[in-house]
């Protein structure tokens, strides 16, 4: 027997299919955009991005495009939404790296651990030549998509757990950390002496609550929004990964747009990325983020010595994994990524 949740999802997808079948008889083009975060633009960079995108498109097209947002995986899992976007069952998705990896293994190059020195470097990388190269490679390897950008999922990753404070690699010993199903994420945790435990996002809170897992890793805004402080005692600002969403648009939908509508979509998606970054930084610094988390959890910032230790353990393991699993195009993309990161890290943003 199907659960009520399953029935509701099936009903929503069926309604979308019916609407799509009759869309040609209406002047307004409906753009259904889904993501996996709650519908709270002030606590979720993902929903902030989606909301800004929808507001601009709906207003600037004067009603020729109607953006409808489906948060919290209302239409199915984030991974399923990537396929639905490729099929034009829905028109857009903010896809996590874990969801993208199923269809586009080259996304794994972004999991080069401890690559960045600061947030500004991440902006340069994805706004520059590498971001363009990544978008082109995705469009080449995935049928029927247009890449609109790489919104911030919340900034750098931190690690939480309920066992002990983590300030050095030995502190990871025996700590079971939830990861996405991406192999490189498992390799990172295992290289740091932890125990990687892949688990679906919807099961993470209960897994932490029941002790199936001891901890997890995510950006601070996601940690705060998911209320992990209720079931976790320690947070370490490892800053070991930066994992943006990929904003995908159905290629079929893109091809149906006028040049003017395409320009508006591009502008709206750029604004979406800016909004996601701004909200991420605000959450980190405000009572929605670290200041409040510090009242509920022990927060540790890695020393440079500890960061160097973590990097020496984990980065070679990830590079070896990527060398063994990526094809020639993926290896070329990795080299481009490393070069772009090195250039961005070397910049002085105070001049």
How does this structure look, described?
The chain has a six-stranded mixed beta sheet with strand order 7-6-8-5-9-11, with helices on both faces. It is of the alpha/beta class and 351 residues long. The protein has two domains: 4-103 and 125-152 and 245-284, Bacterial extracellular solute-binding protein, family 7 (D-Maltodextrin-Binding Protein, domain 2), CATH 3.40.190; 157-242 and 287-345, 3-Layer(aba) Sandwich (D-Maltodextrin-Binding Protein, domain 2). Helices cover 50% and strands 15% of the residues. It is globular, with a radius of gyration of 20 Å.
Percent helix range: 40-55%
CATH architecture of the largest domain: 3-Layer(aba) Sandwich
Count of helical stretches: 14
- Total strands: the figure is 11
Strand and helix order = HEHEHEHHHEEEHEHEHEEHHHEHH
The named CATH superfamily of the largest domain: Bacterial extracellular solute-binding protein, family 7
Uncertain runs with pLDDT below 50, 5 residues or more?
Answer: 1-5, 17-26
Mean pLDDT: 92
Largest sheet: 6 strands, mixed
N-to-C CA distance: 63 Å
Estimate what percentage of residues fall within beta strands.
5-15%
SSE map:
Blueprint lengths: L3 H19 L6 E6 L10 H16 L4 E6 L7 H9 L5 E4 L1 H7 L15 H9 L1 H13 L3 E5 L7 E5 L14 E4 L3 H9 L3 E4 L5 H7 L4 E5 H6 L8 E4 L8 E5 H5 L3 H27 L4 H7 L1 E4 L2 H22 L2 H19 L5
Helix pairs in contact: 2-11, 3-4, 5-14, 6-14, 7-13
Briefly say what this structure is:
The protein is an alpha/beta fold and 351 residues long.
Task: Give the key terms.
alpha/beta; five-stranded mixed beta sheet; D-Maltodextrin-Binding Protein, domain 2; disordered N terminus; 2 domains; six-stranded mixed beta sheet; single chain; 11 strands; 50% helix; 351 residues
